[in-house]
Amino acid sequence: MRRWNGWGDESVNVELPESAIEFLKNELGPGNKPQDISLDKALSNVPASRLPEHQLINTDPLERLRHAVGQSFGDWNAIRSGTIPTYPDGVAFPLNEQEVRELLQFAKKIDAHIVPYGGGTSVVGHLAALKGDKPTITVDVSRMNKLLDLNEEGCLAQFQAGIKGPDLEAALQAKGFTLGHFPQSFEYSTLGGWIVTRSAGQQSLKYGRIEQLFVGGEMETPVGSLEISNLPASAAGPNLREFVLGSEGRLGIVTKATVKISPLPEMEQFYSAFFPTPEQGMAAIRKIAQQGIPLSMMRLSLPEETISTLTMAGESKVLTLLDKWLKMNGVNEQKCMLVYGVTGSKKSVKSSLYQAQSIIKKYKGVLVGTKPGQQWVKNRFRSPYLRNSLWQEGYAVDTLETATTWNRVPETIQSIESALREGLQDINENVFAYTHLSHIYPHGSSIYTTYLFRIGDDPDETKRRWEKLKKAASEAIVKNGGTISHQHGVGTDHRPYLENEKTKLGMEMIRSLCHTLDPEQRMNNDKLI
Amino acid sequence: MRRWNGWGDESVNVELPESAIEFLKNELGPGNKPQDISLDKALSNVPASRLPEHQLINTDPLERLRHAVGQSFGDWNAIRSGTIPTYPDGVAFPLNEQEVRELLQFAKKIDAHIVPYGGGTSVVGHLAALKGDKPTITVDVSRMNKLLDLNEEGCLAQFQAGIKGPDLEAALQAKGFTLGHFPQSFEYSTLGGWIVTRSAGQQSLKYGRIEQLFVGGEMETPVGSLEISNLPASAAGPNLREFVLGSEGRLGIVTKATVKISPLPEMEQFYSAFFPTPEQGMAAIRKIAQQGIPLSMMRLSLPEETISTLTMAGESKVLTLLDKWLKMNGVNEQKCMLVYGVTGSKKSVKSSLYQAQSIIKKYKGVLVGTKPGQQWVKNRFRSPYLRNSLWQEGYAVDTLETATTWNRVPETIQSIESALREGLQDINENVFAYTHLSHIYPHGSSIYTTYLFRIGDDPDETKRRWEKLKKAASEAIVKNGGTISHQHGVGTDHRPYLENEKTKLGMEMIRSLCHTLDPEQRMNNDKLI
């Protein structure tokens, strides 16, 4: 059973090693125990539904509680502490596009809002019910999870858009294919959710972002169905796919999607290397991307993340040996760990590896084989579970991300990290922040920063700390001209900053699309724009 | 000096070999000599300008004649025969975005239409002045041709958008870079033109379409400047770049564009192979694309194009030898020529070549070395010149293109070719049509068909023949679910078919963008939508 107030399945606990807790005590001071409420208490907070009866809509308090929030830090703090501001009045689980249409018509008839709900994994506030007098119907598409068509020759698969990552991969892998889209939320997030938030998977270097994988599909909107045909490319005017991508439920509900699939690779391996400095590591990954060497992923941890990753792993003996060896090779305190993957035929993997490693060595990177890479693969979807464990110890963890051109990457990282580290100076609290680059483009990189702080004495204080840090970091991103989101989307958390990225005129263009497809403003209002 | 009524520089004539003329006589009958008018006559047809004076606007009849049409077959027939329906009232050559803004303000003040003009190479009718009482100002951006910024480390270059292909490549190659965008119109077409028509270059397999190369920029619109910042990727809502791409002058005039550039490759080679049948050729290129083998281009000519390419080349002795050799290897009448390119480091070229050739051989392709590939490179921008030569001989030539998913490629080709071949049966005229696939995607392919027919006894009859053929082929494309354009755009020629691709609701979305940025409908009306 999935946790009602945290990440993942209730049976899965990722324990923190002693060394990690010691490390955090040193950096942040002893943790503040959280004041979580019980499920019974949480259920008692759910107000009466304002919806008339409808056969597709469930008004049970447990479903409404489970769908009231996503996984943004604000959501997390609210559900844990019993301070959720709004609840959906009911949750529907349509089986197909006819039922989605029926729900949209019902919403119109009773003048209700609609919140589309995929896997509930949003970390930027996409899922809250609307404030005000009108009721909210949350439309959970998780039962729309079928493989509808597989075109093996043409490498295309059509799915109902509510299918979750593992089910989608299982259906494809059984036939010898993969989508290759592995965001950290993979276990729960859905194909439709990936599309409307412009998701990027961990191996986007090979497979592309969801923008490159989504070929066509159907979206139910308040004014009718929008069909987007499957074309490999088109020069016929603006691309409608691009209106659906990133639409965050504002234009409608994606019901079907056709995606590009790839034959399962002959082989896949993950390797690791350590660079003496961030500058050398960044130069190497930039070169690899610019030369188009076909790796399947690269992730460069900057010094603080490198140290904290190794510390969290908890194997001190191995670490001491590794450190010794790295020092002998000129890699010291400023070490940066690179994990990189090769995926494909034996021949292409060999060639890619040779080319990539030549560049790594040119920039004084020390190759350390496959161990840390294997460790990364093993844990690739486990980081979100650490939030549960850290919370129990009295620490809050959140992540944020941006992307920018190479010339701005170093100062943007520094600016974000400084904003976070100094963000709670007013109350003499430390913030521990570290960064990696994990989506590498020829002309820029994503920047992914994790930050930890002590939770407050009460939920309001915890919220205040998070909001202060989030604001400071977002302003640092905007000031440096980075995108307000490389992979998480906008939601409510990034909404105040969107105009900086899109400009006033750009916002008007987006708004005009919203008005055209949702003239009565029924769809996921307050999110995105 | 550029031809006023045809393709290319007046000094360049691409002669047809005798064998080609013989071939056409056999297929179509003897050519009908055209009834072209003189430049003096053409100038006398240009009506008086309706524009008040403006320092940026030239109302000279020669400039207005030169900017009255593009290179669509309808344009060609009209300018040759003196039947151009509309002329711009003046042509402006702004130097920068301030002057573009000034022109847009002037158009508003005097209630005029604007037609943006890049290289004048449109083959689908983007450039005609508007019918009716309002005057038209054509804004030729060719003087906006500067390199503004080169970020070598980050592989980004910013240009004024009126720069032409050769100037852009010269500026980049002098610094060791290339954009790698080589459409057939390369000699004259502009960066801004590529962007607003979603152009695809001949080596898009390596470098991507212009959609993948265009990072950010500025567009002057009737309601203000739209700025799109340079980001390597963003999940923050709909992507504004995608509103500009394919906008065909309806939303504004692109003044600056930042593009991804690549280091000049260590080496580049073009090879060739012949397959016994189209089925084997298509299976091989599909496999190569699906396995992601990093070639820089593939072009598979189907049997008719293979034969006509070899015949047009005119070296009959070499051909006889080639034919003998191919026959010995099981390649006969149904032979399909593949030209493929490898571009990159020595190491990657070697690896790509090995992988690609393994697949070619698996599908019974016969490798024939580099000769036909070199021939293709030599002639890669020369095909448009053949239109001049063929016209003199009394033959009309036009091309059309689409793209579709692999399962539909064979029947779409057959459907287009049949529509063309049978298109003039009512007057007992033959049409010669042949096809190649030149933009190969894992999930589909472009289809590029060339067709030749005899020009009519008078310009109206020539126009009637072309319109009949164009309509028949466009309907065949639409019936088969292909895009109405893979690389040429929409303009006026494809406009009647756009709704089939975009749906009614999609058209409303595009229209809402036009209304937002151009509320008075001043920008390139009648084109695209």
From TrEMBL, chains A, B:
Keywords: FAD, Flavoprotein, Oxidoreductase
Residues involved in substrate binding: R387
Domain FAD-binding PCMH-type: 84-264
InterPro entries the UniProt entry points to: Alkyl-DHAP_Synthase, FAD-bd_oxidored_4_C, FAD-bd_PCMH, FAD-bd_PCMH-like_sf, FAD-bd_PCMH_sub1, FAD-bd_PCMH_sub2, FAD-linked_Oxase-like_C, Oxid_FAD_bind_N
GO biological process terms held by the UniProt record: lipid biosynthetic process
Entry keyword Iron: no
One MF term in the entry's GO annotations: alkylglycerone-phosphate synthase activity
UniProt-annotated catalytic positions: Y448
Cofactor dependence: FAD
The keyword Disulfide bond is assigned to this record: no
Residues binding FAD: P116, Y117, G118, G119, G120, T121, S122, E248, G249, R250, L251, G252, I253, V254
Site description Important for enzyme activity, residues in chain: R299
Family statement: Belongs to the FAD-binding oxidoreductase/transferase type 4 family.
Record PANTHER family: ALKYLDIHYDROXYACETONEPHOSPHATE SYNTHASE, PEROXISOMAL
Protein known as: FAD-binding oxidoreductase
Organism: Chengkuizengella marina
Lineage of the species this protein comes from: Bacteria, Bacillati, Bacillota, Bacilli, Bacillales
